[in-house]
Specification:
By secondary structure, the protein is α+β, with helices and mostly antiparallel strands. Helices cover 31% and strands 25% of the residues. It is built from four helices and five strands. The chain has a five-stranded mixed beta sheet, with helices on one face. α1 packs across α2.
Length: 171
């Protein structure tokens, strides 16, 4: 059963006095078999019904989101920025490349660079839940050939907007 059909059934149940399906053809004929008992309703009523449908389905967690997209504040939409430095065998093992790829995969922005002291440092910015995942990755995984002794995180702060548009490797 398609989403439109489920919506029709849901709206028919929730809004029986309004009818449920505004998507009738210009001649008034229904566009799907389930719509045969529907009648034309005002667009505003349809939008209210769609809002109810979205609210209902979201309580069932029916929508799939891309990482970091469309979350509300309760789900970790608070943006944070944190500086990091990783110690161990982290240079010459593609650590920066893997860090950039993992950051992008999580929808984060920021930068990563090698230091003269043999460490890797950078900054992460994004939704707090995604930053936490990245911090764990930096502490425990890194690139396949790396060996992480420790990870230091400092200057963590809540931010209003992202300072970067991408995750960059700084040379």
């Amino acid at each position: 059963m398609g989403l439109h059909q489920r919506a029709c059934i849901f709206l028919r149940t929730m809004l029986p006095d309004l009818g449920v399906c505004p998507s009738l053809a210009e001649d008034g004929a229904p566009r799907c078999a389930l719509e045969s008992s529907c009648r034309r309703i005002p667009v505003s009523a349809h939008l209210a019904g769609v809002g109810l449908l979205i609210a209902f389905l979201s309580t069932l967690d029916c929508f799939v989101r891309a990482p970091g997209v469309g979350m509300n504040m309760a789900e970790g939409d608070t943006l944070i920025s944190v500086d990091y430095e990783i110690f161990g065998k982290v240079q010459g093992v593609f650590f920066r490349k893997y860090t950039q790829a993992e950051g992008k995969k999580l929808g984060l922005v920021g930068w990563v660079q090698n230091t003269d002291q043999g460490t890797v440092q950078g900054q992460l910015q994004g939704p707090i839940s995604q930053v936490r995942h990245m911090q764990e990755w930096l502490e425990t995984r890194g690139s396949p050939k790396s060996h992480i002794d420790r990870a230091n995180f400092r200057n963590e702060k809540v931010i209003v907007k992202l300072d970067y548009s991408d995750f960059q490797i700084v040379k």
